[in-house]
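Predict the assembly for these four chains.
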Amino acid sequence: MTRGSYGQFCPVAMASEILCTRWTLVLIREMIAGSTRFGDLRRGVPRMSPTLLSQRLKDLEAAGIVSRLPSEREQGVHEYRLTEAGRDLKPVIEAFGLWGQKWVETEATLENLDVSLLMWDMRRNINPAPLPPHRTVVQFRYPDLPINRQNWWLIVDPEARVDLCATDPGFDVDLWITTDLRTMTAIWLGLIPVGDAGSRLRIDGDPALARTITKWMGLSTFAGQRKLIG
Amino acid sequence: MTRGSYGQFCPVAMASEILCTRWTLVLIREMIAGSTRFGDLRRGVPRMSPTLLSQRLKDLEAAGIVSRLPSEREQGVHEYRLTEAGRDLKPVIEAFGLWGQKWVETEATLENLDVSLLMWDMRRNINPAPLPPHRTVVQFRYPDLPINRQNWWLIVDPEARVDLCATDPGFDVDLWITTDLRTMTAIWLGLIPVGDAGSRLRIDGDPALARTITKWMGLSTFAGQRKLIG
DNA sequence: CAGTATCCTATCCGATACTG
DNA sequence: CAGTATCGGATAGGATACTG
């Protein structure tokens, strides 16, 4: 019997059998964050191979955590949605996140920089409410990155839909944010307040947008749980 | 790169890297429940090989979750204690337990019967307060089990220390509880109230003890979170 | 885009025996 | 009792290519 059950009736052990396999909690986190399609899930969990992603989704479906439905809009495509049992995992994910934010070495965390993941996360947490009622375009510039990953555009359209582009969409830019990936990630995680980044973060463009940045640029759910770094 | 990091700065991913390996959460649950010595940990996680247990304890020490100290009482023996970071995992364990209790199939859970684990758990949760001020001995009898696992004695001494024996300690017995392992486990998990077990559970002996059984016989932390079974 | 199929190896882990 | 040493096998999962 290799790799069998823990053989314990304890609910912690039973839950661990289902949840504590590689990638599983990260995938569930991504679903709780709102991704429902295979491609979106891949984007949120890019280092997971498609084979394994497919496998895990099947496992989770068998466990009653995910349901797989044909998409209402597109042919031959499915959507993966959390069942009630899946949604009930939110406290589990939150407990992990809080603990991770509090106790995992900052340095270890900041070894995992990933601009695409970061921008994808930021896109999700933009708060359009404080923005003007017309289209707003914010360009992020990371001069320290390879050319094809340096520029990102966040676009909030008048209907408050948020879009992310890695290629110039051609719109006029309202605000430029120029920084390095490590600084931006640390800000996102709540390790550095935007205002404390000093010369590592430059903001140019519309002064009104710049002034309200902390209002519309949402940070990680777990920001603000831990002592700040210098 | 097989089995490397998730490559994500997300605190959930960082925490998962540390916690979501086989046996780890079950081991931590055992430590939170109070076990500190290698032997006690083995008893609480009996299907884990000593090699792997030793390995995991080292991993957890490296992660700052466990500290290994020479025992104050005994030579050449160590105690494994949770650090503050380790104690902070209690909410994580609780979230797992609550979810497991609510969503894992009862039948799956009850396939993992283990009398030694159950009695060890019960021992931990006996509440001596309502018991008389002299030694109390409760004998559990499981006629459905192999002969050498049928009988267990819980002994609460006048100083309120609780002891568990699998061989007759020779004391007069105050109360006999005769049942089958599945029923007793279901009761422990809160799936059946003691009073509803009917003929599957027989109590003999001191009527006062029998009457107050729900007062002194503690159940699983997670009992009472889920709909009962028939 | 949404997945599947195949292959292959690193690594994890279970079993067992052994030592201070 | 408290751990360590060794070994072999299973398997998970990474890489890559492919299909509707």
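Residues 1-3, 37-39, 42, 50-51, 53-54, 74, 76-78 of chain A lie near DNA strand C (CB under 10 Å from a C1'). Residues 130 and 216 of chain A are 6 Å apart (CA to CA).
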